[in-house]
Amino acid sequence: MAIASRVQEYMTEHGLRYDVLTHPHSHNSMETAHLARVPANCLAKSVVLEDDDGFLMAVLPSTQHVQLGWLSKAMNRSLRLATEDELAGLFADCEPGAVPPIGAAYGLRMVVDDSLVDQEEIYFEAGDHEKLIQMSRADFMTMMEMESARQMHFSEHYWRH
């Protein structure tokens, strides 16, 4: 699979600068970072949440996980994870689990964790499990501003035992 069609159209339409990296097929964001040989804290992942007001895309480093209580309180919403069926409907041009952090291309509001602002380069899924988009921090933040993404702290480091 190539870059998701909506992602490609959005990036082209907005004149965003990026490179595409190819890597062996991966199954999760931490494995993607390892196989693509990119720092895991620079790999942005998307978590799609929902409530009665609709969907919200949360974007954070792959080394972090969403603190749903913090985010719900900060947004004054009762957020929960979107279901796999809902994700399949929203991201029909993407492989399951390879959701690009470009909410506007899919009609979603966004919130970005402020820990991504510290990274010089940002990488993210292009819509499949074999390609990453690489952008400078400045270009990524420009894209987030164009999408009116709210920036705040809502994640915590992911610890494996």
Automatic annotation (TrEMBL):
Gene3D superfamilies: YbaK/aminoacyl-tRNA synthetase-associated domain. Pfam families: tRNA_edit. InterPro entries: YbaK/aa-tRNA-synt-asso_dom_sf (IPR036754), YbaK/aa-tRNA-synth-assoc-dom (IPR007214). CDD domains: YbaK_like. Residues 23-141 form the YbaK/aminoacyl-tRNA synthetase-associated domain. This is Aminoacyl-tRNA deacylase. It comes from Aromatoleum diolicum.
